[in-house]
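tool_call: predict_structure(chain=1)
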Amino acid sequence: MDYKSWNKKIAEYFFKHENKDKPVYLYVTKKLLDELGTDENVGWQDFIEAVKIGPIGVGGKDVCDKALKTLEYWKDPLRGQKQGYPLYIAYLALFVLAATSDEEEELRKDAYYPHLAQLLGDDRNKQYVRFKDMGKLWEDLENWSGHTQKGKLGVLKIFKQPKNGRQSYVDFPFFQCLLSEAERKSLHDIFRHLKLRDFEIEKIIKYNERFKKLRRRTSELLKLGKNKDLRESLINIIKDEFAYWQKLSTVNKQKIKEIKKPHQKSTIIKYTPKDYSVFNPEKSRVNGSLRLCCQLDRPAERVTMTVRCQTQHELPKEGLVLRLNSDEFFCERDIKCWSFPIESQGKFLEALRFDWLKDFRLISEDAQWSFKLAASEIRVFLDGSEFGLPYFVENKKLPKKGEPFYLIVQKQLYHLIEKWGKSDACQGFLPIKVSKGLPEGWFMFSFEGAYNNDLVKDYLQFPPDVKLCLHEGIKINREHQFFDFARPKVRLEGGDESIEVYCNEVRLTGSQGMYVLPDNVPAGEKLFIEARCNEQVIDRCSLWLENTFEWPEEIAENYSNRFGIYSENLDRNSPRVLGALVQDVDRVFEDKKNEVRIEENADNFCQTIDLSLYNGEGDSSGIIEDDNEAPLLKERPLLPAQKGQKIIYLGREVGQVAKGPVKPKDWVPIWAIYTGPDFDKAIFCGGSRNVEPILSASKKNTKKMKEWKETLLGCKKRTLPQSNKDLWKIYLKKAENING
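tool_result:
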C-alpha cells in the first residue's frame, strides 16, 4: 500500500463515530499494523517503506522533515488539501511504533532514537534534528479532533510534562503508549469492582497488585520509582479514563427491557416495586449517594443524625418516594443537587435505623433513582455551610490541611484516632462526649486541623493537592467546549496564595479559589489554563469557547406522527415531530378561507383541515384522507399528567366529573383541571365553544354534583384558559347556583 492508503487505514481505526467524545490514544503496534494490512496481504514492514517514501509530491531530508512538510501541504488552502483525515497521521503512528517496539520493555527515553533508527534502517546514532518540531503535528491533530470535528470521531489526548518546566521531545509518543486499549478496558472493570465515587489511585494500585489486571510494565511504572515524570503522566491518563467512565456510568449501559405504550412518549421500565431483592443498582438511570448530617448539641451531650440525598442530577420538583425492602421514605429537593432530610411517616428519618458498617441503598418507586450509603468504620463531617446546608455534613475525604472537621468512628478505631489526634500531625484534638444520638460503640472527635495522615492513610485521605476544574458554564458536548455566552469559571482546588492561575499566559484574578476568564478571550480558539507556583506548572487544563455549534446528526427516536401521536415504527422519510424539531414537512405556504394547505415532501400527501373545528364554529364532521390513523379533531389533544400531577375531567352536565388520566367513555370532557404541588390549571378540551353547562343532571347524584361544583370553585388562583375565559365564567356562575 502507498502512504495515503496507510494513513487512511490508521486514521479510520482510531477516529470513528463510535468514539464520539471518547479519549483517543494512538497506541500503534506491529500487531495492529499487520491487522490493518490483512486485506492487502501486507504488514508493518510495508508500512515502514510507505512512510519512508511519504505522500506523492512531498519531499524532505528525512521522515521528520517530510512530516512537517506534509502538515504544511495538508493545511495549504491553495492546494485544497485540508479535507478528510489529516495527511500526517501515519508519521505520528511511526513515532509511537518506535516506543512500542517491545511492549514489555521498560520505557527509556535514551533508547527511543535508536529504536526509531532501527525501524527506518538508519544508523543507530543518527540524529533527527527536526524531531523537536513534531509537537506541532500532535497539537494540530488534537485541535482537529477536538475543535474542528467537535469530538464527533473521538478526541486525541496529548500530555505534556507539567513539572520542572522541561519536556523531552519523545514525551508525545511515550504518552500515547502508556496504556494499551485492553488496559483501558481493564481499568473500567477495576473502577466498577471498587465502586469508586472519587478518583483514588492508591486503591487502584492495590487492586491491580492483587488481581494483575494491568501489564507488568504498567504495574511497575505505577509504583514509586525513579521514573516519576512518566508515572505522573500515567496517573493523569488513568484519571481521564476515570472521568470518562463516570460519564458513562450515569447512563444505563446494560439495556433494561423496555416497553413503549401507544400515545405515550415516556419509557416504562418493567419492574415490580415490591420485589427489591431482584433490583440491580447498576441498571438504575441515576445513581446518587446518601450523606449523613449531624446536629450537635454540646450542653445536652446529644446529636441528631439525619440523612440527605445527594446527586449530580437535579432532583424532581415533586420529590421522590424511596423504598428499602418494605419500608417507604420520601425526600424533596432542597438546594442544587441536595435533598431535604429524608422523611419517614412525616418525620425526619433517623440514621440510627441503619447499620453504618453495611452498605444500604434506597430506590425510587419507578427504579429510576438509586441512592447508596457506603459502609465505613470512620466518617468525616465538615461544616455544612461549605455545601450551603446547616449543621455538619458527611464528606468522603478530610478537608484541606489545617481546616477544622469532626470524626465519628467505630470503637475498634478509637485508640488509633486518639493516637493520631494527640500526635504532631493534628491540632486541637478533642473527644466529644455524646450520651444520645450515636449508634452503640461509636465515638465523636473534633479537630482544629490535620497536617499529616500517614498514621491513618488506610482510612482517611486529604483532597488532591492542587487541581484545576471548570465550574458552571454551558457545555456543547462532553469535552471542554462551552458556549461563549455562558462561559465557565476556573476553580482551583487544594491551592494556596502561592498558586497563580494563567489563561494563555494572562494571569487571572479571583477569590476563594474561583477565577473568571478575561473578557477579551476570542471564541473559536483553544484556551490553555495553567496553575503555577514559582514559575513551575503544577496542573493544567484546556477548553474552547464557541459562538456556533452544529446540530447533532443523530436525534432521539421518540418521534410523533403529524397528529402528535407517538409511534414506534415511523418511516424515517415520513413527516415526524420531536419537540420543536419538525422533519420532512414544509412550512405552511397557503392560508385562505379558514383553510390551511400542508404539502409534505415524503409522499406528496395533501390534506385540508377545517380550522372551524378549533375555533368552535360549525360542526365537527371533518374528514382527513390519510393512511395514518388520526384523532378526532373535536377533542383537543392533552398532555399526559406528569409525576406528582393530578387531572380531573369535567363534562357539560352537572355531576359529570372523573379523575384522570383515563378519559371517561360515556361522556365528552369539556374541561381538564391539572393540579400539582404548586400549580392549578384549567384547560379547555371540548370542541365547539357552544357547550354551556346543563344545570339539571340527567342522573341525580348528589355526591357527584357536589364534586363537580367544588372542582370548579376549588381554587381561586387557578390559571385560566386564555381563549375561553368567558365560557369558564359561565361554568363558574352555574356552579355557584347549585344548592348543597
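agent: The chain has a mean pLDDT of 78. Proceeding to next step.
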